[in-house]
Please model this.
Amino acid sequence: MAPTKASIPKSEAQLLQRAQNIAGLSLGEMATRYNIVIPKNLNKEKGWVGLLLEHVLGASAGSRPEPDFVELGIELKTLPINRNGKPLETTFVCVAPLKNLIGASWQNSHIRNKIARVLWVPIIAEREIPIAERLIGTPFIWSPSPEEDHLMALDWQELTDMIVLGQVEQITGKHGQVLQLRPKAANSQAKTQAIDKNGKPFLTLPRGFYLKTAFTHQILKNHLRLD
DNA sequence: AGCTGATCATTG
DNA sequence: CAATGATCAGCT
Model:
């Protein structure tokens, strides 16, 4: 993707400052600084913006199951918003386990650990704005409040109960108040193993946990209120 | 217009 | 195939 890359931030304060320093810049300016080619659209590079920010902020790259900033325990999430600060897309968190759920709990779940601390970087990204002209908004670091954690716990329990009962294929994006379970795969033919109500393995479409836009919108608004 | 289901690239 | 990074786009 690029010939250069930022160094790994040494503290949360340094990471936040680095993120704040690029607020207001366009993706085009950022890409040019790092000699990264800007795609005309994201049809075939849906993760381009996220990877660009990883480079700029010095995240440890790779598809390892660790936070983007390992030493700091912080996950980086870009959040596409419109000019009014409303999220345009749900936020993917992680793949959902569909087997080996005996003894699973929200407290120990991968998803909870994954979003325990997040650096949100809003991007004004209405589709009519060319990629290069999209602007980086005001970044901030967030951890779920007790209330937010509770809301996610409720949804996680509902969705996980259905998975355990072998009803994963009955789950739709409508389930859950703040979390949802949706396909996360190369295509609709992809398969992963799940367990049916009789404990027998079967193949089904891989799913992921996503944060609904109303939830991320509230996180955004809460942050502004607390400024 | 918003949302749900589908999809794309890359790496280990 | 699973995990990383997400957005696309047709349907309601």
The mean pLDDT of chain A is 95. The longest strand of chain A covers residues 75-81. Chain A has one domain: 12-224. Residues 41-43, 45-51, 54, 61-65, 68, 78, 80, 88-92, 94-95, 125, 127, 184, 186, 190-192, 206 of chain A lie near DNA strand C (CB under 10 Å from a C1').
